From TrEMBL:
<dbReference type="InterPro" id="IPR036397">
    <property type="entry name" value="RNaseH_sf"/>
</dbReference>
<dbReference type="InterPro" id="IPR011320">
    <property type="entry name" value="RNase_H1_N"/>
</dbReference>
<dbReference type="Pfam" id="PF00075">
    <property type="entry name" value="RNase_H"/>
</dbReference>
<dbReference type="Pfam" id="PF01693">
    <property type="entry name" value="Cauli_VI"/>
</dbReference>
<keyword id="KW-0540">Nuclease</keyword>
<dbReference type="InterPro" id="IPR037056">
    <property type="entry name" value="RNase_H1_N_sf"/>
</dbReference>
<dbReference type="GO" id="GO:0043137">
    <property type="term" value="P:DNA replication, removal of RNA primer"/>
</dbReference>
<keyword id="KW-0479">Metal-binding</keyword>
<feature type="domain" description="RNase H type-1">
    <location>
        <begin position="73"/>
        <end position="206"/>
    </location>
</feature>
<dbReference type="InterPro" id="IPR009027">
    <property type="entry name" value="Ribosomal_bL9/RNase_H1_N"/>
</dbReference>
<protein>
    <recommendedName>
        <fullName>Ribonuclease H</fullName>
        <ecNumber>3.1.26.4</ecNumber>
    </recommendedName>
</protein>
<dbReference type="GO" id="GO:0046872">
    <property type="term" value="F:metal ion binding"/>
</dbReference>
<dbReference type="GO" id="GO:0003676">
    <property type="term" value="F:nucleic acid binding"/>
</dbReference>
<dbReference type="GO" id="GO:0004523">
    <property type="term" value="F:RNA-DNA hybrid ribonuclease activity"/>
</dbReference>
<comment type="function">
    <text>Endonuclease that specifically degrades the RNA of RNA-DNA hybrids.</text>
</comment>
<comment type="similarity">
    <text>Belongs to the RNase H family.</text>
</comment>
<dbReference type="InterPro" id="IPR012337">
    <property type="entry name" value="RNaseH-like_sf"/>
</dbReference>
Length: 210
């Protein structure tokens, strides 16, 4: 089978035609009932996009890239993560949510002074790493909600991990691939649990968040 050059998403976080795999993956990874397919030519992609074909449960091809995206991924907990920064120190916070209720929460200050150059992003990364470790200890699969795009984009390859901290993060996450999936949320938008972990992260630095 030839190389896939175009992708069409009919059901996903974002629908339409994509000319690269990372963008397609970001649009469908973790989306239940995702419908997508890769094509060698743009003409083939547009033809499938416009034909109204219904392929519930996702479209499978022989492309190894397509296999990365698990359209009907099942998970045990929603996990919200966030980071904060103040006076040269960063912090993290995360919660495990089941049926709309917090079942576990944790926060803490970062210990890597060199990583603090990344400010709150260092905390964002730390939150996800701690949450994945917790999920592993519970033998659970999680959907990670984050408000910083790099959290998912570095792992999917949509963004290049350019420093040793983001590279170490990608290496760690790939070790646990299959245990988690990502979903982006808008920060400071009134999302209950996103606001919750924002407060947790700030509290770890002694910031009084109202």
């Amino acid at each position: 089978m030839g190389k896939k050059n175009f992708y069409v998403v009919k059901e996903g976080y974002k629908k339409g035609l994509f000319d690269n795999w990372p963008d397609c993956q970001a649009a469908v990874k973790g989306y239940k009932g995702a419908v997508f397919k890769g094509f060698e030519t743009k003409a083939e992609a547009l033809a499938w996009k416009d034909d109204g074909e219904d392929q519930k449960g996702g479209v499978k091809t022989n492309s190894s890239e397509d296999k990365v995206c698990e359209a009907n991924w099942e998970y045990d907990y929603d996990v919200y993560t966030d980071g904060s920064y103040r006076n040269g120190k960063y912090s993290f916070g995360y919660v495990f949510v089941k049926e709309g209720q917090v079942v576990f929460e944790a926060n803490g200050a970062g210990e890597n002074h060199e990583a603090a150059v990344m400010r709150n992003v260092a905390g964002e990364i730390a939150a996800v790493i701690h949450a994945v470790k917790k999920a592993k200890s519970l033998n659970a699969k999680i959907r990670i909600y984050h408000d910083y795009s790099g959290i998912a984009h570095w792992v999917t390859g949509a963004w290049k991990a350019k420093n040793k901290f983001t590279q170490a993060y990608v290496t760690f996450m790939k070790e646990y691939q299959g245990l988690y999936t990502f979903e982006k949320v808008a920060g400071h938008s009134g999302n209950r649990f996103n606001d919750y972990v924002d407060r947790l992260a700030k509290e770890a630095l002694g910031i009084n968040s109202k």
